[in-house]
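Lay summary. Proteins are chains of building blocks that fold into shapes, and those shapes determine what they do. In this project we predict the shape from the chain. Here is one chain we studied, written as its sequence of building blocks.
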Amino acid sequence: MLVLAACSSALPEPAPAPQPVKPVARPAPAPAQPAGNWIDWPITPGDWIYREDARGSLALFGKTDQSAIFIVRCDRSRRKLFLSRAGTVGSGATMILRASAGLQSYPASNSGGTPPYAAISVSPGDIMMDRIAYSRGRFAVETSGLQSIAIPIWPEFSRVVEDCRS
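And here is the predicted shape, written in a compact code that computers can read:
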């Protein structure tokens, strides 16, 4: 029996448990942009809603029970229109508005609110507001780093613009 005990070796120590691999944070991929001419893009789902508050009037576009995708606001005291697209942008961002009669690019910046929006401000008399109002059924909003959208043109948009002009 002693002979058998001398032949046995000590059990090897178990291997250390592997360290968990930390996932590498990857930036979110850029949103897929609609293909083709903007006039052929699918209309972004949603409806327009017109409201008034202490600052002036606003029209919100989006799905029911969700934050608006796009907002046009008249700030009466500043005599400015603010057009806002849901999301955030980096430094040097632009917002391009497209209508049947033309397009215009504007510098865009984050509004700083919650939920976040990228916004531009324009004069109520900006020619692009009339181009959008008379566009053939839709207009497009292309904002740096955000998915481009095609929005139906309904009277709510024009009403806010006209409120700011009077």
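What the prediction tells us: Residues 39-165 form a domain with the Immunoglobulin-like fold (CATH 2.60.40).
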